[in-house]
Amino acid sequence: PKPVQKPHPPLWVGGNSEKGIRRAVRFGDGWHPTRPQIPDLKQALAVLTQYCQRYGRDPKSLVISAREPLKILDRREEGYRRIPLIGTPDDIVGDLRQLKELGVQHFVLDTFYSVPELDRETLADAFRTIERFAREIRPALAD
């Protein structure tokens, strides 16, 4: 059934696959990939732009949001595989700036997530992460 509310609530379509991107362009008000790596996101946004051209849609009409794990480290650990938003405060600020430059407008930050870096997180750890984000990272993004 069609939504009763007018205008209807925005529909953000999730999915990292090409089919998910195509669905977002055709039917959504936004696209919401989960845990995109920055090089993959660049490629996906190029695909999104191609689908927008195909369907006669302005790419700027789509809200871009991303869901990412968040883990703030005091220092990088030896042999650590770098992924977005898991790193030192400076790493995370840099990641968020890069994602914003690519066009990501909204973030869903997970302090519990099914990645090895977060598999031992407790509720207390999650609260500390949120507090550190507010204290150390958010102010650096105020510009």
Folded structure, characterized:
- The protein has a single domain, classed as Luciferase-like domain (TIM Barrel).
- Strand 2, helix 2 and strand 3 form a beta-alpha-beta unit.
- The protein is globular.
- It is 39% helix and 15% strand.
- The protein is α/β, with parallel strands linked by helices and 143 residues long.
- Helix 1 crosses helix 2 and helix 2 runs parallel beside helix 3.
Task: Summarize the structure in short.
The protein has 143 residues and is of the alpha/beta class. It is built from 4 helices and 6 strands.
User: Which ranges are low-confidence, i.e. pLDDT below 50, for 5 or more consecutive residues?
Assistant: none
SS-based class: alpha/beta
Specify Rg, calculated over alpha carbons: 17 Å
Strand content: 15-25%
What form results from the Cα inertia axes?
globular
Order of neighbouring strands in the sheet with most strands: 1-2-3-6
Annotation field: number of helices: 4
Assigned CATH superfamily: Luciferase-like domain
SSE succession: EHEHEEEHEH
Instruction: Provide the domain count.
Output: 1
The biggest sheet, with number of strands, parallel, antiparallel or mixed sense and barrel status, is: 4 strands, parallel
**How many strand units?**
6
Average pLDDT, to the nearest integer? 90
CATH class: Alpha Beta
State the CATH architecture.
Alpha-Beta Barrel
Compute the separation of the termini in Å: 43 Å
